[in-house]
């Protein structure tokens, strides 16, 4: 099907370069790497040294937890028995029994992550680093031209890579495995972008080897026990990058595994509860919200695609959405991300109410009523999305000094209609399932949604080929097969009028 679609003009082999510099007059500054008295982590370009595990915050425990109840009881008894040494001694012993590692009597729980503290890794896994001069070169480029991939994958802080590279290449304190893994993940996406654009900045460097090295180091980190088991913001960032890369590599099960680990981390750290973020500076709290909701959207999509219960239970989440950027050029990207959070919530509802073990036991009458209700909630979402698209029109973007690529916005979010009709198809497919019912027959609504989705695909594919180039077609075909064809599997062929 892909090969049979032709264009009226020659197809580019690489992604079309629509980038514009942030400023036309001011040259990009050289990153401030070479500070007096600092040297690279090792002379042979290898990351080395002892493992740095930052002191973790208290593990989040809800109001029903033993630790929370014990603290509340202790406070009550302490008020009534301040003059009784026996009671105070008993309270002290209770706190010690709760956990050997505690903050104000609340267990951190993090010393339970290893059977024996002495078995914690004493050194970092060996990771070869990219040449420092190459890093400086691409960071200068990044300062001048914002990364398209960072925008598309909701990584708002364009220069986070610069700070983490400074920490790794010229450390003033021990570097954590989470930092190393995150750095290589960010570098990986940036290099893939420059390769897709055939950017001349890569000339003279062995980019194939560099790309392979970044992939290898991302793999090493994401597959390590420390990243998978220790709740820390750096590990969450590393896993999030791993999830995205696994999806792009057509490995949904791996993406689910990494996403599940990251989900455990953010819940352990309390990112799902607004009260846990109140004491953070606004910028830090917003970064945590951004991480949380990014994972939420991926999880809900994978949950429905793989037919597994979500790691994010909506009844236990009250954290607010992240704030929309005050920068005009980036605000529409934020609005788009927030809009997809609501779609993720609807995807979760489709699975829970129609495909979970409990849902499949409901009567056909109940299931049809649920399908109608969910469809009524899903339809307005598409109109909401149309409003976001209108904010990113080229006329609007033409008036913005700092350009954040309306052309790429249309490219990365172009498949939105395909995703929408995929969800709608899955929703109506449930009408043919239930207790004692499982048939390949489909309803008219299901067929209509599937047909519209395929039409949207045929409409978008030439746009993708024109803007992304023929060299990047594999990624689209993989995405389409994984995220759409799997939803319409009962129809081996659909004749389009």
From TrEMBL:
GO terms for cellular component: nucleus. Its main location: nucleus. Residues 11-27 have a biased composition (Basic and acidic residues). It is found in: Nucleus. InterPro entries: AtrR-like, XnlR_reg_dom. Residues 255-328 form the Xylanolytic transcriptional activator regulatory domain. Signal peptide: none annotated. GO terms for molecular function: DNA binding; DNA-binding transcription factor activity; zinc ion binding. Keywords: DNA-binding, Nucleus, Transcription, Transcription regulation. It comes from the Eukaryota. One of its GO terms (biological process) is DNA-templated transcription. Residues 36-52 have a biased composition (Low complexity). Residues 1-56 are annotated as: Disordered. The keyword DNA-binding applies. This is Xylanolytic transcriptional activator regulatory domain-containing protein. It comes from Orbilia blumenaviensis. The lineage of its organism: Eukaryota, Fungi, Dikarya, Ascomycota, Pezizomycotina.
